[in-house]
Amino acid sequence: MTRRPFPASIAARLAPAALLVLLAGGCVSLAPDYHRPALPVPATYAAGDSGAAAATAAADIGWQTYFPDPVLQGLIATALDNNRDLRNALLRVEEARALYGIQRADQFPTIGAQADGSRSRVPGDLNLTGQPQVTSQYQVGLGMASWELDFWGRVRNLKDAALQNYLASDAAARAATLSLVAEVADSYLSLRELDERLALTRETIASREESLRIFRRRYEVGAISKLDLTQVETLWQQAKALGADLEQARAEQAHALELLLGAPLDLPGMPPRLDDGTVMLDLPPGLPSELLVNRPDIVAAEHRLRASNANIGAARAAFLPSITLTGAFGTASAELDGLFAGGSRAWNFAPSISLPLFDAGRRSATVDLAEARRDQAVASYEQTIQTAFKDVSDALSARRWLAEQVDVLRATVAAQSERARLAQLRYDHGASPYLEVLDAQRDLLAAQQKLAQTRRALLSSRVRLYAALGGGTQAPAPAQAAAVPQDASPR
User: Fold this and answer.
1) What is the structure's pLDDT at 473?
2) Cβ count near 221 (within 10 Å)
3) What is the pTM of this model?
């Protein structure tokens, strides 16, 4: 059978359509397939620290729910509105969003309108007529700047890398928000601890000052020796020194909290002792695998890993030909009134193709650099997971053992209180020297101070556990969080 030649007219009609199908059908991506690295930590936390099964994950509990204390809620809200570090983190999200928009625009041609007009005079001795000539040229049209046909996915991979960097910055801002919430809560607890210790110390100072007054009177009438008076005065001075030290620590802690708030600290009158049962909730830890979606620093590290993976594809595409299109369409005329007359149509089309033949290994080195950065991102991602696992394990261990210490210290304070009472009775009846009373009262104050410190440390461990588990990151986003573009979901 005789094969008929394909008509040239049909081929001419199909060529533009084939080009459109090729452009619309996407491009080849030279980026390596992404596979999430294996979890570099055990599947469970240390034995005895797993806790009860959680009905609600920590990530679903917003900070307003986890910290029901109204004073603490007000401080956290103030910090979220005014803290400068958080403000910078949110601005970095906007910066990354703009960079993503710039990179995304490179996928599409840039088309602009232009209008030109010119008049020129040529002397007679420079043309064949021997007479001076005045010429005019006017042109109006649409032009397309150099647009790269992304056959090898270089532009798309750069766009994907910018997208992942944007998502990483958004996750980093959520990590900064969670960190700020935890820092404010911990700073508030430290301030309340110092208030409680100061209240205990002031009570002790007042009690010992009264004792000193009584002993001074007894010494004046010759009922006691000067040694007894000196011992009582020493005990009073020690309490005063502790009070001054705590006052300084409390002032410094208030200044640190003001820095976190980004605003003056204005605390209402509160009881000196913090109610441990109402300041925050308690949490079970869940499983280590949940950290991958709940910890914003891990989410940010994975987005950076995806970005480095996309950069490899862009670097590989540099080995293949680059095709760009430039063109314009419009009208041109020597007379202004003939600019839109029949036959004034003008156009130009200038495709170009380029392929570097020798670059002294630059492109190979660029690929090696992208792969090395990808390997660094893998190591950073794995280290972030290991750090998160350690944070949770440390918080669980602290919560367990500090609770036991609190129980022991409460029993110790009760025992020391009884010891001090009995020592005072023995001294009053002349059965022992005042040195025994001195030691008992000193040990009682030390035990009370240690109990207040350990109770605060136990509460701080629960704050750290909430932050380590990505607390509140899956709850409704705060108002100041940046919106994610509709096409900015990770792939």
Assistant:
1) 83
2) 7
3) 0.82
